[in-house]
Amino acid sequence: MRRRRTFPVHLALIAVSAVMLLPFYWVLKTSISGDNIFAYPPSVIPRDPNPFYYVDVWYAIPFARYFLNSVIVSGVTIAANVVLNAMAGYALTQTFRGKSFVLLLFLSCMMIPFQATIIPAYLITGRLGLIDSYLGLALPLFSTIICIFVYKASFDAVPRSLIDAARVDGLSQWTIIWRVMLPLARSATATNVILSFIWSWNNFMWPLIVTRTPEMQTLPLGLARFLSYQEDSTGALYAFCIMVLAPGLLLFLMAQKEFVQGLSAGATKG
Amino acid sequence: MSASPRSAALRLLRNRFVLVPLVLLVLIAGWNVFVLTHNHGIVTGRVVDAVGRPVAGATVRLWVFNFTTFVEQASVTTAADGSFRFTDNPSHNIQISAEKPDAGRSERIAVRLYFAAQDRALPQPLRLEKGS
Fold it and tell me: What region, left, alpha or beta, does residue A132 occupy, with left being phi > 0 and alpha being psi -120 to 50 degrees?
């Protein structure tokens, strides 16, 4: 009886999912067939599928180098986000004078677009001597306010008595964060990891500004470079897109349960 | 009662955050071993005439994709049985053609490889046609 009631809902969800997934399927199909997007009639099944567009991409630009750069920058960004955001999130769960002002400041800072802060960010990075370095590439994304609030929401759900018990046992604030709070906030950590990875992985503007040498460029810059080389090859372009997207998709698929839990943590608190 | 180190290791291996990267690493390592053992740049094949007889002394040219177009990389002459062998193909995207003054010339065939300098034996012979 219940199954009969949920069937139309599932049918509608499948239809919506198919519509959402169609562009991804189209990119994947073109990357293995090279079918022109304007071909008529359009074919849903790829004609003569082959992996050679991926091979072309691999050899057209130093893909492995760009990939390694992206992995290093994303790794540094993820580590910094987890550490710094957990600390900031924990601080915001404490009671202190001016807490409301700090929260308001954080929320208002979220409304400033990154483009507006590029010049000071560049000047600071330059003063630190980090232009054209991995650390310089990762620096602006070291901590993001949304992720701080994700940790705050997760830490708010931890009973105060647990923190008080840890204090009575003589644990320092640092130890409470790493040994008590973080193990209880795995979903928030997964959300932090995924969001910081995606933002860092897809970042185009900042690497464009802060890198000087081709050896330090990341995948989004490689994509732009590749476009300037081979603008007539739809298959290779789409293959490149898939190669850039794949790590993010894989990470999301692995951690989607924690990711959704992390985003909805605290949502039902009354 | 604490778990034994072996069961702890097995539990860790079953964790998808460990298992997936591990499987990927094994696949990448396997692929790289395969590439390293098959990237000598050897391309072999045969040249036949219009009726399928081997052609000796035909000139076979190797064309390599160079950024925007194909350029001639090397040429060899076929043996008595019509076979040829290139040993220095550096590319993943090549074309091969054959010609002999009194037997005609073949079409330039495209050969796509899975990695640069992949060893490859052409499944079909190059067929010389007069007037082509």
Answer: left
